[in-house]
Design goal:
The protein is 68% helix and 1% strand. It has 289 residues and is mainly alpha-helical. The chain has a two-stranded parallel ribbon. Helix 7 crosses helix 8, helix 7 crosses helix 10 and helix 8 packs across helix 12. The N and C termini lie far apart (62 Å).
Length: 289
């Protein structure tokens, strides 16, 4: 027990040590952030003011009315794939900025319940499934459901991820929950070690994994296309996968229970807010291209 406490103390000292960040990695991440930011800025300027570029990249068959040429909102409402691509670039750039500039957390998130949850390397399977589930659901709704169903998921999803990034900047958080060593040579242990090596235990509260999972589960419940006989199985499957992902964040010691709870609350709050916006027709007109 005493040895475990000493190892945990060593982990915490490494986490809080600014020298733990590699200068080469820091420079590389800064370069990536600069390049992506410049690309986004240039492309947004051209997309807003260049009519030819709008038609070329968007693939719109009909000419764009003159009054809508300079409307970024109308352009994105007609080109949802471009909107998702732009947000992906923004999100990756912002996350690189956080990794480079926030190396020491102000708060280590922890509660007593975290100590009662055992570590489970097999939870890496649903944890990695999250990276496939999000694009699958977005594109499935885009191609199979009414356009309003797609935007009803896409907008709160991206808004919540942006709010989470802002929370990481305002109050940098970190974790001291990971095991000192992951034993085993099997695929699951190797995957966990790879995750720990590439994903720092920083910027954790609220959990984006949990936020996205809850938001996606509500999207499956809300869209009526999943009421058809051939798609009814997708709702319970989404619930099982979403709950498994949420539990995996805590079983892998990637997040505290506090992170998970705040991520779920953020999802519920934004769902309520966007439901009211939908009732007042504040969301953009959603139509198929």
């Amino acid at each position: 027990m005493q040895e475990t406490r000493i190892l945990s103390r060593i982990n915490r000292q490494k986490l809080l040590s600014p020298a733990s960040a590699s200068p080469k990695h820091t420079k590389f991440r800064a370069d990536v952030f600069t390049i992506l930011s410049a690309f986004c800025l240039v492309f947004f300027v051209f997309a807003r003011y260049n009519h030819t570029l709008q038609r070329t990249l968007g693939g719109a068959a009909a000419p764009i009315p003159e009054k809508e040429v300079c409307s970024m909102r109308n352009w994105f409402s007609r080109h949802p794939v471009s909107f998702m691509a732009f947000y992906l670039l923004f999100y990756l750039s912002a996350f690189h900025w956080l990794e480079v500039h926030i190396a020491v957390p102000d708060v280590l998130v922890h509660c007593h319940l975290d100590d009662l949850i055992p570590f489970c390397k097999y939870a890496i399977v649903p944890y990695f499934a999250w990276f496939l589930w999000i694009p699958f659901t977005l594109f499935y709704l885009l191609w199979k459901a009414p356009r309003a169903d797609f935007w009803r998921l896409c907008l709160p999803l991206f808004a919540g991820m942006t709010i989470a990034l802002a929370c990481y900047v305002i109050l940098p958080t970190g974790l001291d929950l990971r095991p000192y060593r992951v034993y085993g040579s099997d695929l699951f242990a190797q995957a966990v070690r790879m995750l720990y090596a590439t994903d720092t235990p920083l910027n954790v509260c609220p959990s984006i994994h949990v936020f996205n999972s809850v938001t996606l589960m509500m999207a499956y419940y809300r869209s009526r296309i999943f009421e058809t006989p051939g798609r009814r199985w997708m709702r319970p499957a989404a619930n099982v996968l979403g709950i498994a992902i949420i539990l995996s964040t805590m079983l892998l010691k990637q997040h505290s229970c506090i992170d998970a709870a705040l991520g779920a609350l953020l999802a519920l709050a934004l769902d309520t807010a966007f439901s009211r916006m939908m009732d007042t027709n504040d969301l953009p007109q959603m139509r198929r291209i």
